[in-house]
Amino acid sequence: MRMKTMNRMIIFSTTCLLLLAVIMSTGSGCTRLRDRQTSGPISPTASTPSATSAATPSPTNEPNQEGGWRLGPLSGVPEDYFTYFDIPDLTLEEMKKNFYNKTRSEWASYYQQQSREAKTLSDKLEAYIKDWYYGRASSNIPTGLLPPSIDNEKTKDWILLKPEEIKPEDQWYIFPAHEVDPDFKKLYQHSCDANATYLRLVFISPFDSQLLIDGDFPHSREMSFHIIRPFDPRFPGTGNMGLMEVPIIDVDIEPDAGSINPFRTGADRNASNRHYHMVFDLKAGDPTALNPVLQDAHLRAPGNTRVGGPFISTGPYGNGVIIPSTIWLRYYAPDKGLEPLAGVSLPKAILRLKTGEEFWLKPSNDLYKERQTMLAEGAMTPPLDPIEATKTSNG
Length: 395
Description:
This protein has 395 residues and is of the alpha+beta class. Helices cover 20% and strands 22% of the residues.
């Protein structure tokens, strides 16, 4: 029974995270393209609302037959408002011209070019980190070392920190589990399930480094990690055009020596000794080949190591520019009275170069945090016909 439950949970968890990825990635920064995907136009030059103010739903929205709610377009908010990166503003016609008519050899050349650009960025970043680590450079990443798609108003002024300087509360974005507002006036833009708390980490690092996470198993019904897949320009990270994230479910995580995993059958779910360590190797290459978990029908594999990416290509939606990587930590159904963090401290994340130097690379991200956690007012969803591709012969 436990195995079946876990399989269902990881499939649900992955589906939910994919929905989040679509919400936060699809057409991000591409206002002209995204206009056709929303129920109403949004002015990219309008003023920015406060993080604490509820946005006003579009007055043209009418209740649908089922009375269903959704988060309506936010008045005066640009389409790329909630993304953590900046990518080129492309029309669908420009995307087709740049990508959709390539020959097989042109695609091969494009992939090689993308890989060279990624390797150049990785080498420059690694060299600078080492110079800083050994006292030869400032902790502030110099302007121009990172591309504008990474160093922008949302994640800017990147600074290097030693492990002892890291504060977990400065690392994670939190989408908390919460009571559902019966009037749908206060809804989190990016929380697809009010019963779940999502912790999100945005980071960059050189190839062949590691992301280390040190934490405690939460007091909740389920937990899982999902990291952006290894860098491979064939599987871009925007527009929901690539592969899924790389997951690990709670029951498969080995606890530290002297600790227990409370999610395993027969374990004391209230035990105080519940510590774990995770290792995410950050590489380039085929995501499935590097991750046995992606080869399993149930997305299950033992061990505390997974292989993710230190950053990712945007593909057609972003004209191939490179953006930071992300990892999600999900607590489903925190115990009553222990919401939203399920009774444990925030995990601590550290990056480690292949030569052993440990650090963290932190942006000034207050603007992005404010946007990500902004509340919005629900709007009624009007009736929509199914898209042509889903219609049957009976209509």
